Amino acid sequence: MHPQQISIEAYTYLLPQDRIAAHPLPERDASKLLIYKNGLIEEDVYKNIAQHLPEKSLLVFNNTKVINARVLFTKPTGGIVEIFLLEPWQTDYTTALTATATTRWKCFIGGVSKWKEQYLELQIADCKLQIELKEKLNDAYVVEFNWDGGATFAELIEKAGKIPLPPYIKRDTDIEDAERYQTVYAKYDGSVAAPTAGLHFTENIFSSFNEKNISKVYVTLHVGAGTFKPVKAAIMQEHEMHTEWIDVSVQTIENILANIDNTIIAVGTTSLRTIESLYWLGVKAILEPGASVLQLTQWEVYDELNKNVSVEDSLKALLLWMNKKHISNLFTSTQILIAPGYQFKIAKAIVTNFHQPNSTLLLLVAAAVGKDWERIYQYALDNDFRFLSYGDGSLLFI
Q1: CB count, 10 Å around CB of 326?
Q2: CA distances (Å), 316 to each of 6, 284, 357, in order?
Q3: Three-state SS for 127?
């Protein structure tokens, strides 16, 4: 079956609200870990994950950092308008976050019907942040931010905003979220949702990798609110996959190329989508060596691209294309939808949390483990695993 014909109703399960973790455990690496390999299921805890990884494995982590994307503005009448930052509008993250006077963002707006004024203002220390509604989009708005005082936009929202917990965590943010809704290796500002598979990793776990010559590399994919977008279409052909921006260095691609004969493990669905996208972008570099940009749309990996190119040839072509462009980092967009029927090219395993029913993330898991996803999730439900962002996780060999 072509993935376009998949019915999302076949990828659902009953998830009681009380199985959704509302808070992280006191210790990151104390979370439970389900291990699926060769059709067998066992369990352990994250601090022992190195025991379950092959020697010389290469783990790929997403080092994005969650920004304080929820900013509340109080109207003169007392009403609240909530601005939820989604992504910079017609510019890149670095430019938007380092701006010192004005920037535009695509945003969700809570209470937009209450916003009658041309401007709303928020006082932040000695700086006045002013916002103006510039454009209505299909599913969001373009909001312009203006301020004085010389602070960067990143500094302003760090002071004024709140961590954007997922909508299924039914509580307000508290002080622990500032630390625990970030990975210990978070580096580059931009995400409005954490790459949650990485929340379990600690420096102690990284130290345990040394005994088995396990190495790690980093990619950057800024996670958007689209990761929570439910699939409402009857079949996947009618669902538009969200686009995300990836940033991968030449050195990381070279490390992946050097390890193609070892076990490459994606930590999180974002890392998985990134490294699988690298393969297909390399194929496009072979097909279009003179292309000015390389981007990946939703369905072309199933229909339009040559599937017989080796990983080695693909990544070498991608590196050659980057060299000709004199770029040290590949910064581009991917809309890849990984669903049952997808043939993995680079990843041999994935570390991931347990995902919502009827989601593209669950489709990705099913692509990796087939129909056994039902058995895996039933085991987790039967054995007191905690679900979703602050919950437990799994190591799934493809």
Answers
A1: 6
A2: 34, 12, 38
A3: strand
- The alpha helices in 128-268, defined as continuous H runs, are 153-160, 177-180, 203-208, 250-258
pLDDT-wise least confident of 53-57, 122-126, 156-160, 369-373: 122-126
CB 39 within 8 A of CB 372: yes
Last residue of a domain, one of 101, 128, 161: 161
> Does residue 215 surpass a pLDDT of 90?
yes
Per-residue model confidence as pLDDT tens digits over 143-184: 999 998 789 999 999 999 999 999 899 999 999 999 999 999
| Contact (Cβ atoms closer than 8 angstroms) between residue 190 and residue 64 | yes
Residue 86 and residue 203 in one domain:
no
- For residue range 60-74, what is the model confidence (pLDDT) as tens digits? 999 999 999 999 998
Cβ–Cβ < 8 Å for 33, 205: no
CA-to-CA separations, 19 to 68, 182, 381, 382, in angstroms, rounded? 26, 22, 8, 11
Does the global pTM surpass 0.85?
yes
DSSP states of 348-381 as a string? Answer: SEEEEE---TT-HHHHHHHHHHTTHHHHHHHHHH
- Whether residues 19 and 99 share a domain: the answer is no
